[in-house]
Design a protein that fits this description.
Length: 143
């Protein structure tokens, strides 16, 4: 008898967040020396393209830990499913610029960062500066 599995919770890797001492030195290394194209930037972080995936390298100055961000359909629902499956919530779902985020732990103590893009991807100007969000269904910036 074949067992029916629930719909997969984690959709894909959204980004790998890498701590750097400051954005300019991070860009000098990852963009200028390693060749990763700048997608977007703020005062505390910058997204860089990896050519064989739409997942990004995000250099950032806010946290000192290397962090993988996993994309889910809904951070709120994902946190609830993690708990129902035997995990725990470290940080309840909260708003971020592109949507919602939750930090959870699986039954073995692994910390997972789950985020959704319910507010839409970042919109940028011609120099990569973040100017808002694009519609979840379109690429234009929302007011």
């Amino acid at each position: 008898m074949k067992r029916s599995l629930p719909e997969a919770l984690i959709r894909k890797i959204d980004c790998l967040q890498i701590p750097v001492p400051d954005i300019e030195s991070g860009l000098a290394f990852y963009r200028d020396r390693l060749g990763h194209h700048l997608l977007w930037r703020t005062e505390t972080s910058a997204g860089l393209q990896m050519p064989d995936t739409d997942a990004e390298i995000v250099i950032q100055t806010e946290r000192q830990e290397l962090e993988a961000n996993l994309l889910v359909t809904s951070a709120d629902e994902a946190a609830s499913r993690i708990v129902q499956a035997g995990g725990s919530v470290l940080l309840q779902p909260f708003d971020i610029q592109i949507g919602r985020c939750a930090v959870v732990r699986d039954p073995w103590g692994n910390r997972l960062v789950l985020l959704d893009m319910s507010k839409g991807p970042l919109a940028t100007d011609t120099e990569g500066n973040v100017i808002g969000n694009a519609s979840p269904d379109r690429k234009e910036a929302l007011p």
